[in-house]
Amino acid sequence: MRTIGVAIAIPEPYGSELQEHRESFGDPQAVAIPSHVTLLPPTDIDDTDLDQVEKHLDLVASSHAPFRLRLRGTATFRPVSPVVFVVVAVGISSCEVLAGRVRQGRLSQDLRFPYHPHVTVAHDLDEASLDRAFEALAGFDCSFEVGSFHLYTHDEDGVWRPSREFVLKG
After folding, report:
1. What pTM was computed for the model?
2. CATH no. for residue 129?
3. Contact, 142 vs 69, CB < 8 A?
């Protein structure tokens, strides 16, 4: 078995900037989780299913066009979940469609919460740290073209690493 995830990587310099902020808020996951918009949350698969999963992701990427993504400001899932995130302000519907296509076939699953594209910047921290994250990134604003997504694997050291890129061609 292996644990995988599928996500849109936040490009540089924004990805590192958000990851550094996450670390400054005291989030211990900052060093293990690159900045991203989740399309498929952590999912366990058999190693023998990996080829099938990659073929599925190839098909998804080949049928989806590149799109613009704008991240702007902060929001939170509190009190339901102790999370502060940077808001996807433009590109929400493209993320929703892409995530829906990714989560089909072998990757079909019921989500714990309704899908809401975002970039987590603080998770499972005390209220003061969550408030600090919310305020510190309230003015964050960037925009970029999404031309691909990645398959990530959760390694034994607890770090999420991209294992394959899927280029959007639709």
Report:
1. 0.95
2. 3.90.1140.10
3. no
